[in-house]
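Re-run with default settings, no changes from the original entry. Doing this only to confirm the output is reproducible before filing.
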Amino acid sequence: MIFQFVGKNGKYLLVILTSLLLIIVSAFSYYKSKYSEKPLIVIATGEETSESYKLMLGVANIINSEAYNFKVKLVPTRGSVVNARLLQENLVQMATLKADLKIGKNAYVVANLFEETFNLLVRNTVQIENIEEVKGLHIAIPYKSSGESYTYQQLSDHFGLDQNIIKPIISTWKSATWLFENGDVDAIFRVREANNSEIGTFALTHPVYSKSITQAKAITLNYPMYHAAIIPRGAYQGIPPNPKNDVYTLGVTKMLLANSQTPPDVVQTIASILFTRKRELIEFTHVVSAVAIPEQTALLPWHQGLIDFVNKEKPNFFQKNAEFLAFILSLILLAGSSFLQMFNRAKHQRLNAYNEQLLSIKVNVEQCKTTNELEKLNEEHFELVNQIVSDAVQGRISSEGFEFFTFAWNSVTRLISSKREEIKT
């Protein structure tokens, strides 16, 4: 019956089985692609030539090439202002930006990446020593969408650098250097790391000197996100040294931030790579040596992932007090050993007392002449046995001692029996 049905409908059955197989294969492929795909963490950085991009590129390469449970994608941008907006609007999970930018409640610090210093590059024919003497100069300043422009605005407000004092010209770095070469600007203001390669190359090939940004302590009173910094003598060139002397200026920290929706385990992993795998990251950028855990008193709160990393790395109570606890443990073991020795000595002394009593009974049995005396000794013998059995149950004597006493007790028992027969005869 079944074979006849299959024979008549074989073509239809083949189509049905093939369709079912295709459905199963398609469902499996969909499930595998849907649920085995690793989540993607998007990080906004600076331009591809920036140190922040190079640093995060190193982190992304480590994560994407190893068996982590997520992937990282970098989004190069024009600067910190764009990054802050992307982070606040949850368009990215993490971003690099300068510590002086205003940012909402949705941002949490992950790491301090490196320090950026205020660079005032002035033509060597201009006779000034610091920013207080810039009146009348044409200065190329950063474009408004960059974090550097916001920094310049804070500096300008402190010194009152309005257009009646200086002539600001908004420009990119490329256009600023072009304007400098053509004599259209006297100075360039930028916020970059102290040994920035672009500024270093420019300083070596053009008649320009780095000038001081004075009143650092006074500025930090109103802007606590800044701090006093130094561009070291010879940062751009060793012989002859360029700059010729240490240049006192201001600094601001470039940070890595994450929003509240970024999983703590992801932040903990990235923090761990930044803090513990610097030898690998230094192949991408030299600024990795400055990466550090931020102060807990920082203006921005820590992300939970950073808290988890720090707590994991911190020694626990037992690790902190290992030596003291080892000393206490040795005292406890010494005291326990002494107590155990005293307890064993007490057991031994108790057993010796029982053996002496048993020996006394044995001697008395041997010297016994009458049945009444023998029965009294026999009762004394059994009372002694009852007492030692009770002590053995309560642990007052050792099992080895009890076995030895049992052997001696049996010998006395046999002696009493033998004596009883002897008296009878």
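The radius of gyration is 44 Å. The chain has three domains: 2-35, 80-314, 322-424.
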